[in-house]
Design brief:
421 residues, alpha+beta, four-stranded antiparallel beta sheet, 19 strands, 24% helix, disordered C terminus
Length: 421
């Protein structure tokens, strides 16, 4: 056994934990591989780690009766994160025969060392160019994740026919990573939790690497993201200075520091500080305030004058859609913020009812609102200037300007993170 292979064996030993038979020599292990015979071995669509654990269990069970409990069976090590499902049925087979078959089906070399048996990535499965069918376990949305680029304005009227993005097929997704499909090769999604692929051994090697990367990305998406927004009221002079700074090439972080300085000097007033936590890739919304009942008018219905009541939101709404990038520590954030401050100014006006023709009074409302819809790319925990808006619907001669600072930070993974066996 050369030096590189010994180092790999030591690495795998650390990866899967201490082996149960620490001092077993190569000769003793070689003898056990041939002497322990398993009457029936059967796994169906199980991970390679589970298949190996089943070999360990049966080897301990069918070892010679005189062997003490701590020394029973054969220590076997394999990478835990192998995106592959195996099916194997054998009867009256030795441990060596079972491990050899598992190694051939998973593209692993079976190597016997002084501390146990190691299965590590070695040669490819089958002959080059020969089509081989393999089954891979995949988590939800692994092959075609939801589109993160589209984010509708939640305050805009709903569209009657929203556009639907064409979803990628499993083949198109794999081809985007450089996997080729020669004549006779195919891929099927199975029951949604499996990917069945028939392809050449060379392409299976690439598919395994691709799926490991996609699984890592799915795990990254399960991170919790805390989003915090700071809303400041500025005078016309400060608002103009901030707009010029942002338009003149100042970064979002630099503009954020300008607002912080104005706040310390009393030239900016903090009016709202909403914060919420969600998962990467999952839209979330927070509402702070109340609803105002407004009589908007009357409509004719079944020959009667029917009042039209509308509930108007007064306060703050914040909707976010964060996505933690797989290749870096940055966060893509879609954000929509609406703020209504103070009490709405209510009034009355007289209208003529559509059915009876009589006069009646209805409400009028003046509701100063500020809305911001934007998309940002943030560094983890770094606050940036998101934009500046002026309130509409208020006093026309006294406009108020609001600046928004946003920060997002990644927290520990959620407990429901999908982790391969």
């Amino acid at each position: 056994m050369n030096l590189l292979r010994r180092k790999l064996c030591v690495f795998l030993t650390l990866l899967v934990g201490a082996l149960s038979v620490a001092d077993a020599g190569v000769e003793e292990i070689e003898a056990k591989l041939d002497s322990i015979r398993i009457p029936r071995y059967e796994v169906e669509a199980e991970t390679l780690a589970f298949a190996i654990e089943e070999v360990r269990r049966l080897a301990r069970e069918h070892d010679a009766p005189e062997v003490e409990v701590p020394d029973r069976g054969v220590p076997i090590a394999v990478e835990k994160r192998v995106p592959l499902l195996v099916t194997l049925r054998m009867e009256n087979a030795t441990v060596r025969e079972i491990l050899t078959e598992l190694g051939e089906r998973s593209g692993r070399d079976v190597d016997v060392g002084g501390r146990g048996v190691f299965l590590w990535r070695g040669g490819i499965i089958g002959n080059p160019g020969e089509l081989v069918t393999r089954v891979y376990p995949v988590p939800p949305n692994c092959i075609d994740p939801p589109d993160r680029m589209q984010f509708d304005d939640p305050f805009a009227p709903p569209r009657p026919e929203p556009g639907i993005r064409k979803r990628l097929t499993a083949r198109e997704r794999l081809e985007s990573f450089g996997v080729s499909f020669p004549e006779g090769a195919w891929v099927r999604s199975g029951d949604g939790s499996q990917l069945v692929v028939r392809n050449t051994p060379e392409n299976h090697e690439l598919i395994e690497i691709v799926l490991l990367q996609l699984v890592d990305e799915i795990g990254r998406k399960r991170n919790r993201v805390r989003v915090r927004a700071e809303v400041y009221e500025l005078s016309r002079a400060e608002a103009l200075a901030l707009q010029r700074a942002a338009g003149g090439g100042r970064s979002g972080a630099e503009c954020s520091r300008m607002i912080d300085e104005w706040f310390e000097e009393g030239r900016a007033t903090l009016v709202a500080l909403p914060s919420l936590v969600t998962k990467s890739g999952q839209r979330a919304k927070i509402e702070m305030g109340r609803e105002q009942r407004v009589l908007m008018g009357y409509a004719a219905k079944d020959g009667k004058d029917v009042a039209e009541i509308e509930m108007v939101q007064v306060g703050l709404q914040l909707e976010v859609d964060p996505f933690v990038r797989f290749t870096s520590d940055s966060i893509d954030l879609n954000l929509a913020l609406s703020l209504t401050r103070g009490e709405p100014e209510m009034g009355r006006r007289t209208i003529r009812l559509p059915v009876s023709g009589e006069e009646a009074e209805i409400d009028t409302i003046r509701l100063p609102q500020a809305k911001l819809v934007t998309a940002l790319s943030l560094s983890d925990g770094q606050p940036v200037f998101a934009g500046i808006v002026n309130e509409t619907g208020g006093e026309p001669d006294d406009p108020r300007f609001l600046a928004v600072i946003v920060a997002a930070s990644v927290e520990r993974p959620m407990s429901d993170e999908w982790v391969p066996e």
